[in-house]
Amino acid sequence: MKTTKIGSACKAALAVAITGSLFAGTAQAQLAGHNVILVHGFQQEDLANPPANLQEVKSAGEDYWRTFWLSRAEARIDWGSDGRVEGGIAQQAYEQMRQISQQGLCNDYCIVVSHSTGDLVTRYLLENQARWLQSEGLQPLKILASLDYSGAGGGTELANLALSLAYNDSWYNWPLRAAVEAFTGIEPEPGKLGVVNDLQTNAARNLAVSPNSIPRLRFVAGGSSYGGITKPFIAGTDDGVVPTHSACGATSASGIDSCSSSISLAGKVTSQNGPSALYFNHYPVLMNEGVTHSGVLGSETGNISVPVVNNTTLGGLQVDFASRTYNKRAWWQWWGSGDRYIEVPGSDQTDMSSLVYTTLNN
Fold it and tell me: Where in the sequence is the signal peptide annotated (predicted)?
């Protein structure tokens, strides 16, 4: 295990003081000297009230990121959750990518920040954007890396259940129905689930899976969303919406407990049911057992982050989170050194997005 580095520890301390006072369009609206593009996640409001036009989609996209990342980005790719990734979502995304290319925002490389289903949308865009833009004589976007929070690129079992419930709701019990409706925001009906169709585990894992050279840095949560009612229906550990197998970037949809075979989401150094393999160029960087699915975007503090892939360079980004290992005995342990843990010191004093931004912004 790696011990705490003074330089990285300073970064963790600095993250505590980060505020939301930066504004897009300034020289500060960058990460590590590169412009940032935001790709939001599933918005259940779009299923109940489909957006009338792209302006409504963009307005909702702007609100999505206000907690932290909005003021630190130069561009967004907003999309309506009532559409499908290979249909309306791709069309909306391309209009915005064309503008980004025309403005030259990625001439010196951009960094993508995605959340939840934005991970799947990003994967599809990264596979196709060069071909799309070149067909119009435009410069493809140069992407350095993607930071994926609670990534749903591997789908979620909640989407599987939502589609099953939409087509055959006769036998489903109340707890399952409540979990599905908490996730979708509606009573599922055929033809009204939009991107939820693409979030079925098999569908997601067959969409734009060709390897590419852009590293995907994964930030994984394990907290409870919707009062915990969804957790019994998701394989392995999860953040109340996305299973760990998806957020880590595992090649299989089998339920797992951690992104590591030797470290738990809480940082305990012990044998874990980890992924048998990860998708090419996917790197679980931080895990956090306490933060929720939406809390990773800057709204929650008090949770310990655990480094997994650390002290390395990924896509030109220096990944050097502070880390320390220590031993802790349970209240009932009167002998021995106790269990061994690893953590990012001070990470419970800040939120996950601030910690990541401060550490990688070098």
Answer: 1-29
3-state secondary structure at position 330: coil
DSSP string, 247-265: HHTBSS-S--S-SSSSB-T
Tokens 């908490």 sit at which residue?
Answer: 182
Six token digits for residue 138: 């435009």
Rounded CA separation 226/331 (Å): 31
C-alpha angle 263/236/175, rounded to 5°?
Answer: 145
Helix (H, G, I), strand (E, B) or coil at 336: coil
Strands 317-319 and 312-314: antiparallel
The identity of residue 261, as a single letter, is S
Nearest C-alpha neighbor of 362 from the set 3, 2, 12, 4? 12
In degrees, to the nearest 5, what angle opens at C-alpha 353 toward C-alphas 352 and 357? 120
Look-up of token digits 């940032």: 36
Query: How do residues 168-216 score in pLDDT, each as one tens digit?
Result: 877 678 999 999 999 999 999 999 999 999 999 999 999 999 999 999 9
Compute the distance between CA of residue 194 and CA of residue 84 in angstroms, rounded to an integer: 6
Q: Given a cut of 60, is residue 73 above it in pLDDT?
A: yes
Residue pair 69/38 in contact by the 8 Å Cβ criterion: yes
Kindly give, in sequence order, each residue whose CB lies less than 8 Å from that of residue 250, ignoring residues fewer than 6 positions away: 154, 244, 256, 259, 275, 276, 277, 278, 279
CA dist., res. 265 & res. 127, Å (int): 31
317 backbone dihedrals φ, ψ, rounded to 5°: -95, 130
**Chain segment 76-99, per-residue pLDDT in tens:** 999 999 999 999 999 999 999 999
